[in-house]
Amino acid sequence: MRNITAYTANLKEMKWNDFNFDPITIDTLAKLETPEHYKNSFAFRDALLKAVQKFSNQEVYKLLVITPDNISTSNFYGIAFLEGKNILTLQIENTPIFKEWFDDIDLDEDDADKITPKIYSFAENLYSSQSTSNLTEGLIYNDTGAFITQFIPNQFIAEKLAKEKVDFLEPFIQLNAYNNFEELSQNFKKLIDSKQLNVCPPKNNEAIYNQFEKEANFPFPSLIKDYLSLHNGIENFPIMSAEKIVKEWKSWKNVYNNWTQDELLDTYSTNKGKTLQMYTTPYWIPFFDLENGNFLALDFAPNTLGTSGQVIRFGADQDIGYIEADSLNTFIKSLLGEQVEMEDENDLVTTNRS
Asked: Is the Cα torsion angle 12, 15, 18, 21 positive or negative in sign?
């Protein structure tokens, strides 16, 4: 297709006339049954993504729709970011059904008669719009390549984004956590006996560890291996089995993989400098299920004031990780109901978990 441009370093220098905008008819829009329904916006988005995918026969990572201002242009334009780091440029035909749908989703509540040229950004999990006035004047129709580079999807720069995350974490990684296994074993046995818990007996987890190491690209920490030599989970108790540990770790690893470093890092929250100000990292290995998507994890990439193998709290309801205990042994003691020094995100506290 002559209207496909490869994503290269030269893209930023390209002008409007360097691109070919071939016409596309959006034939994936159904009859508009319920005008002004909130779901219409998403139906419109999905129809356009489907039409562009059918037109290009390639996966569409992201689609920009530029609406007319009736001064520079009266046309609708589409810029699609495709698999293979290709960019497809289109002129969207303003057919009666397209106009009906667009007028429905583009209603300006303040002034229905006012034309506000916008840029819509569509993707599988993205629906947003902004006024073209937010951009430098003339950027779209003059310095078009520079305009497009502002909307490059993460898939186009995946290697760069992955390197940013690796470079950030590397100075903090400490896989060899200190562990007094004899004391840990004694306290774990006390916990089982005092609370009359039913322990799932330990088993050979080498296949699970190998699976973890293949996906993680680092060894399964010996601290957790030692810990799992005592059990393989506990019935009706939050302590997790080897299988569940790796399953939940993989789920959070997917979150980490899909987010950028900027999205993962939270510089507004504070946690006393013992854990990284991150939403998640692959070096937080969940072992205790707090339910509702929240976990306690063993931290093998502590912040400068932290200790490898410390217990942290993270999950769906946490913006960043927070220190819970300075070690696994300290945490197990807390479950016994003994008074031990524990920490929260605000102060050092003494707790009794009887």
From this structure: positive
